[in-house]
TrEMBL record:
Official protein name in the record: Uncharacterized protein
Coiled coil: none
Keyword Amino-acid biosynthesis: no
Keywords on record: Membrane, TPR repeat, Transmembrane, Transmembrane helix
Residues in TPR repeats: 417-450
InterPro entries: TPR-like_helical_dom_sf, TPR_rpt
């Protein structure tokens, strides 16, 4: 069989070729996988957490090194959430990798080998190393942390004044790591922590205290509660950075400090609030000039302008109306109007070429400014600061234009709870109560912890009943009272209801049930206080709700009666 060797050689050659193809394919696959692993390490960057060294081996409740690393990663994630949405968040590698390739017996896995290769070029992620030590039998811990390759990036935990619980230790480690790697996020986080303490600036001041002593106490309280010392320490790190992208956010953080101080000064005086707001506006201007396309800097600048105009206007409703242009009332209305006009002018300077998200933000701000300027115009028309409904074609056209701005923005970027509240207020001012209630409900769905949407729903129902041009509708009245009852029971803060209660008294007096309601309130509030302070805090809400329930029963039984003349309606 002379051809047999030829066939054998062909088969052998075929298998040899197949072997070469498989070897080449395997080598190519290895190269591709290795290259992908290296590219992945380069793309992720961020912060890698080594397993924590835990020096508490004899303690049964001590965390494992892997668990401690995961808890630090959780704290890093929480801290980063406090930053601005447009900031790039660091990728955090907590060392838990469900899929990794490793040759049995080899010291390196594919992932660690890729990281070593990347490290040769100085591009490896920053590595967080830490050691945790049990301090005492009461569960106290201490820790030391460092960032590999940076001998200056070290810190001890807990910091002064911080409890030595495990959660606080994990937070301390995470915060110090972020402070070295991304100081602007660390500044934003600690600012929010310190902002919670910036309040009570008039605490402990006796009414008869001399003016000098009162001011001494206020200065001391400001230094103790609103110095933002930790935030400013982190800002100093930002200012020491050579990264210009970090430096551009320094004015923004300082502006947030001034905004927080203005909020704390609400009960101290208008002029002192305005001083802080003017400083915030200056800081935000600086930041916005450096980042013209930043939604965050535009939003906070407009927020500061709006806040300034709003608090000036809010001081005018209690004032008696006078036409004199030199009166305090007229001057404040003019300043508020000019503040909103200046804000509108700033919006016109934003580049016309912008992202859909930025365009939506600008539309909403323009709509809100139209609404706030309408409020001042309505105040002048009514010669009263009581919120009213637009009248005449011009006013309605302005509010329709404002609402259209919000509708256009919604098509490009979903509205937040705050946006929906503002949109609802515009619709309510235009007399579109049902549409406003839809927006308030959506706002409540997005932010159930906020009581304002539920309150505005109740007020919108009340106004719908009051503005009904036909005969009084018992069904609409019961819906309004039911919404109010729901607000008092589920979302209100517990009162006192200084603005809402007089309005409800007038409403019930207008339908012949005011006297019963007031008698119910007097009788209910006369009950002795409850021993438990936790329960007693609901005294105003409970009395209000109890008597609203009675009013609902009364209206259901006898319907709407002739209007009464009461103290609330005179």
């Amino acid at each position: 069989m002379p051809d047999a060797p030829t066939k054998f050689e062909r088969v052998a050659n075929w298998f040899d070729g197949l072997r070469k193809v498989l070897v080449a394919g395997g080598a190519g696959a290895v190269v591709v996988i290795a290259a992908a692993a290296i590219v992945r390490e380069l793309a992720m960057g961020g912060l890698a957490i080594d397993p924590v060294v835990v020096k508490a081996t004899n303690t049964p409740d001590a965390p494992t090194p892997e668990l401690a690393a995961q808890q630090i990663a959780r704290q890093l994630d929480r801290i980063q959430r406090s930053g601005v949405q447009e900031w790039r968040r660091l990728h955090v590698d907590d060392g838990v990798h469900p899929v990794d390739l490793q040759i049995p017996g080899a010291p390196l896995s594919l992932r660690s080998a890729a990281r070593e290769v990347v490290a040769l070029f100085g591009l490896a992620p920053v590595t967080l190393r830490s050691a945790l030590t049990r301090r005492n039998d009461q569960g106290g811990y201490s820790a030391v942390m460092s960032l590999a390759g940076d001998h200056g990036a070290m810190a001890n935990c807990p910091a002064d004044g911080i409890e030595d619980t495990l959660d606080n230790i994990y937070e301390c480690i995470a915060f110090n790591a972020i402070a070295f790697v991304d100081p602007k996020t660390a500044a934003s986080y600690i600012l929010k922590r310190e902002q919670a303490e910036c309040k009570g600036l008039d605490g402990g001041l006796a009414p008869a205290m001399p003016d000098l002593h009162r001011e001494e106490h206020r200065i001391n309280n400001r230094r103790e509660h609103c110095s933002f010392a930790q935030t400013q320490k982190v800002i100093a790190k930002m200012m020491g950075s050579t990264d210009k992208s970090e430096l551009r956010w320094v004015p923004y953080i300082f502006g947030q400090i001034h905004m927080a101080r203005a909020e704390a000064l609400v009960d101290v005086g208008l002029q002192q609030q305005l001083s802080e707001l003017d400083q915030a506006i200056g800081r935000f201007h600086d930041s916005q000039r450096q980042m013209k396309h930043s939604p965050t800097t535009i939003a906070v600048l407009m927020k500061a302008f709006l806040r300034k105009g709003i608090i000036i206007h809010q001081t005018t409703p209690p004032m008696e109306w006078v036409d004199d242009a030199d009166s305090l009332l007229q001057k404040r209305l003019t300043i508020a109007d000019q503040t909103f006009a200046e804000a509108a002018e700033q919006l016109q300077q934003i580049p016309k070429t912008r992202s859909p998200g930025l365009d939506a933000l600008v539309n909403r701000l323009e709509g809100l400014l139209i609404y706030r300027q309408w409020m001042i115009d309505a105040h002048r028309r009514m010669k009263s600061g009581v919120i009213t409904v637009a009248v005449g074609k011009d006013e309605l056209a302005d509010l329709d234009r404002a609402a259209a701005k919000y509708a256009a923005a919604e098509a490009k970027d979903p509205a937040s709870a705050t946006d929906l509240m503002d949109w609802g207020n515009i619709l309510r001012a235009a007399g579109k109560f049902d549409d406003a209630i839809v927006k308030y409900r959506r706002a409540f769905d997005l932010d159930p912890a906020n009581a304002d949407p539920a309150l505005n729903i109740a007020v919108a129902y009340i106004e719908r009943f009051e503005r009904n041009s036909g005969s009084p509708d018992t069904g609409q009245l019961l819906v309004a009272l039911g919404a109010l009852d729901d607000y008092l029971a589920w979302t209100s803060s517990g009162g006192p209801y200084r603005a809402l209660l007089p309005r409800v008294k007038r409403l019930l007096a207008s339908v012949g049930h005011g006297q019963e309601f007031e008698e119910c309130l007097s009788k209910t509030l006369a009950a002795p206080p409850f021993a438990d302070p936790k329960i007693e805090k609901w005294k105003d809400a409970a009395a209000f709700k109890f008597c609203i329930d009675g009013a609902i029963d009364s209206v259901t039984r006898v319907g709407i009666r002739p209007a009464e003349v009461t103290n609330a309606s005179r």
